[in-house]
Design a protein that fits this description.
By secondary structure, this protein is an alpha+beta fold. The chain contains 10 helices and 10 strands. Its main location: membrane.
Length: 451
């Protein structure tokens, strides 16, 4: 009976269409509070943040006051929210109707204090910066203001202290992708085209993405492929397997990028840093494959391969070996000595062949055969001399072919040495570039994450 009598007493002559003050010059002060319950979704493409908040309002209604002694010492009562005056406080960043459960009642104290508590699912526009994805931190604002009443009619204030609001995670569900860092609050006045000022209360919801999933699924596979590309340089450049290995890596990385393309956030204002990282890694793989093709083409054995130019020998086989700390120079000097010996031997053989019409290597053999050879005038026609001369010519041709082939092998060996030194040089340059790129990228991510 006391509740019914009090409800009838308060609402019998109440007019909810008028701001509840006895003097119209009195300002209605509305204290608001906010607690973040969950981060539901972050739509980077449409720049929309969806959160679930607990929102509280508190104001004084001068027409909802009573003496508790007259109503069985009742100091608080709940009344329908549709039956009393409620301030028109909205969120400026709203982009969709708030999907919140309907709370039909408000609490009213005997001094006229009205408490309106309700949960709201808020879909708000937010400027999302995904350049540091997946180590990004987002700062989205929720601006509460009266849409119609200026600051002389309705003023806003904070229900609790800013420090209590900032680090309040008592109701936050932190098992999703995003972690709540803090909630900042600030009060300010604004005016539109020099008209009356309006009061607004801003809450800055600062959230951070948990990067573990993206690190495991995006960064680590890419790093493993780059490490395998570096290890591939230890394959011999003349084996022919390095090109197929590099092509396989490039193909695998392309398939990897196709798989992760749906995971990366898509926006029209820019590309995340991790996208640039993937593009640069792909470019490094292409450069590595190009270098491998160049080295394989250089060391490939060809019969018509020219001699290594002297300036190339001096630059790569002498100076570059010192620069690259390749101290095993014996094989280079031995190869050059063997090549010069073979060339001198070929010249001697050519001069001997000119002096020896029958192609003997030793002049004593020529004398022995010459002493045993009968004079044409005394012995008459003989079939042995033309046969022996033909056999000797064939043997001489075979010997010259083998010597020429050995010379070609020496030329190919020299080019192999040049290719080996050039491969070491390009590999170290490539390794320095990869390390510098990795250190720079890691430093940028660390600095931005700490900031």
């Amino acid at each position: 009976p006391a509740l019914r009598r009090l409800s009838h007493y308060l609402l019998a002559h109440y007019q909810k269409g008028t701001r509840p003050v006895r003097d119209w010059r009195t300002t209605t002060n509305v204290a608001i509070d906010l607690m973040v319950y969950a981060i539901l979704s972050v739509d980077e493409k449409n720049q929309v943040l969806t959160t679930y908040i607990w929102y509280r309002q508190h104001w004084t209604d001068e027409f909802l006051q009573w003496d508790p002694a007259r109503f069985d010492n009742l100091t608080q009562i709940s009344l329908p929210a549709e039956s009393i005056w409620v301030p028109d406080i909205l969120i400026n960043e709203f982009v969709d109707v708030g999907k919140s459960p309907h709370v039909p009642y408000v609490y009213i104290g005997h001094h006229g204090e009205v408490q309106n508590l309700k949960p709201i699912q808020v879909m708000t526009a937010c400027s999302l910066d995904i350049y540091n994805f997946p180590f990004d931190v987002q700062n989205c604002s929720l601006t509460f203001t009266s849409w119609l009443h200026h600051i002389r009619d309705i003023n806003l204030s904070l229900w609790r202290q800013p420090e209590l609001v900032k680090f309040d995670r008592s109701v936050f569900m932190n098992q999703g992708e995003w972690e709540l860092l803090y909630v900042l609050s600030s009060f300010q006045e604004f005016s539109v085209k020099s008209s009356d000022s309006y009061a607004e209360m801003k809450f800055y919801v600062v959230i951070r993405r948990r990067p573990l999933f993206y690190t495991v699924s995006l960064l680590l596979p890419s790093i493993f492929l780059m490490v395998m590309d570096i290890v591939g340089f230890y394959l011999p450049p003349n084996s022919g397997e390095r090109v197929s290995f590099k092509i396989t890596l490039l193909l695998g990385y392309s398939v990897f990028l196709i798989i992760v393309s749906d995971t990366l956030p898509a926006t029209a204002i820019g590309t995340p840093l991790i996208g640039i990282y993937f593009v640069v890694c792909m470019a490094l793989l292409v450069i590595s494959l190009t270098e491998t093709i160049l080295i394989v083409h250089l060391v490939h054995k060809q019969d018509l391969q020219p001699h290594v130019p002297k300036w190339v020998k001096r630059l790569l086989l002498e100076r570059a070996t010192i620069l690259l700390c390749i101290w095993d120079k014996t094989k280079f000097s031995q190869s050059r000595t063997q090549s010069s010996d073979i060339s001198r031997q070929v010249e001697n053989n050519d001069s001997t062949a000119k002096l020896n019409p029958y192609g003997y290597e030793d002049p004593r053999e020529c004398e022995a055969f010459g002493g045993a050879r009968p004079a044409p005038a005394s012995a008459g026609p003989s079939e042995g001399s033309p046969l022996v001369a033909g056999v000797l010519r064939e043997v001489t041709a075979v010997r010259q072919l083998l010597e020429r082939r050995e010379e070609f092998r020496d030329v190919a060996r020299e080019w192999l040495q040049v290719g080996y030194v050039l491969d070491v040089l390009l590999f170290r340059v490539y390794l320095v570039a990869v390390l510098a790129y990795s250190i720079t990228l890691g430093t940028l991510w660390s600095v931005w994450r700490d900031a």
